[in-house]
Design a protein that fits this description.
With 61 residues, the protein is an all-alpha fold. The chain is 48% helix and 0% strand. It has three helices and no strands. The protein is globular and about 40 Å long.
Length: 61
């Protein structure tokens, strides 16, 4: 049974676009982590992606 795939940069974009409707949103990993106030333990690993997903679900940008 395959696990669902979630693109965390897509979640970030969807939350951020509400405040910058015609602007450019920087989707670089370091920028998103800094904006969310999260430490960088490793880039693009399962743990960091899970932490970012949980943070995005529970925060307003």
């Amino acid at each position: 049974m395959p696990n669902p795939q979630i693109e965390v940069s897509g979640l970030y974009h969807d939350k951020k676009i509400k405040f910058i409707p015609d602007g450019v949103i920087d989707l670089r990993f370091d920028v998103m982590m800094k904006e969310l106030g999260l430490p960088i333990f490793g880039k693009h690993d399962a743990f960091n992606d899970a932490v970012m997903y949980i943070k995005l679900q529970n925060t307003k940008l």
